[in-house]
Amino acid sequence: MSDRLRLDQAAKILLGVWMAGIVVAMFLVVPQYVGLGDAGRIIILHVPTAWITTVAFAVSAVYSIRYLWKRRASDDAGAVAAAEAGFLFCALATVSGMWFANIVWGTPWNWDPRETTILILLLIYAAYFALRSALDDVERRRRLSAVYNLFAAVTMPFLLFVAPRMAESTLHPNCAFIQGSHCDGIWLELNGARVGQLGDVVLALQGIEQRGDLAVAQVEVRMPGLREVALLTPSFELSSGKPADRPEFPGQQFLLAVEGVDLTNGRVLLNMEAPGTGLLSNSRTFWTFMAANIGFLGLFIWLYRLRADVLLLQDRLARREVAYELPA
Amino acid sequence: MNFLLEPAIAIYTALAVALTVWIGIFIFLWRIDSATRELRRRLDEEAPAEPPAAPRATLETRNGHTRETVSVTDSQK
Fold it and tell me: Which of A8, A82, A111, A295 has its CA 20 to 30 A from that of A14?
């Protein structure tokens, strides 16, 4: 066994152990999240797979450029293999997102901007595979699919990063894109501006109370369609400087959070958040999440290289059969 | 089997299922990886140094008599 092969095998075993560690950490190290319970753990699978999707499609596009430049079969195999792996990770991100949505938002599919754009991306790459299988001539198939792949790759950043941000509102955690929220939140004071507005929700600060390490705010909420005034009590952990309990707005999927407290002057910073906001502020969740990103990247590299190898071998075997085939 | 879904146990059940799925995927990939490597090694070993020749037939005429010489490939000459 050569040194390179030995190193290759060791890397794969390390990846196996690493990913097993992430699975264990996902269930036993990542804490439950207030308002989400165990559903919050899905972030360890959902977000890294979505990130690896972008990496995979970008790698596929690079191979396609190389193919169009040098016309090597190995570049075409690399492009297909990376696109297939990207498609797999994209499907995983979609399914894990639907799972989360079913638990937290009450239905697996909400036509949220991100859900819609990732579905379009899946369809674009499904068309890439359909195009490949529709062309019999090998050279033509490789050339046309490489060109198509470049167009598909151009749409990818738009669909994943631009389009969801152009939407007015999303259920995904992101302060700038939740209708009514502000990235900076609003400060309310007991001895000054007690009343403020987040979108069409009117908030009135009724009091601030310190309970041990927690500062608990009493906030009166008035919303369109809400007959009675609701009183919510979001809290803030003073030692860590992070929001603690985030109650839901009545009849809505968004949460009210205290993002800052000034007990001396009786001020609180309030904001509207989507479920899942602030998940990564917990260090155990954050490091498990980062480890998952590395693990999924390693898994992608293994998967696409293996698939490219299989495709090249299939090609060699097909050529070998033709070469040895004698006329009847 | 219902005890596996009890709140205190459910997290360990989910962990066991997820771990089993990962181990299954890892073994599957490992086996494909090994098979691919072995197949590539065999193909490399049996690959001829030169590309296989096309079958050929030669027709010779000696003293007015036709004689056919057929060789299937160059390697059989």
Answer: A82
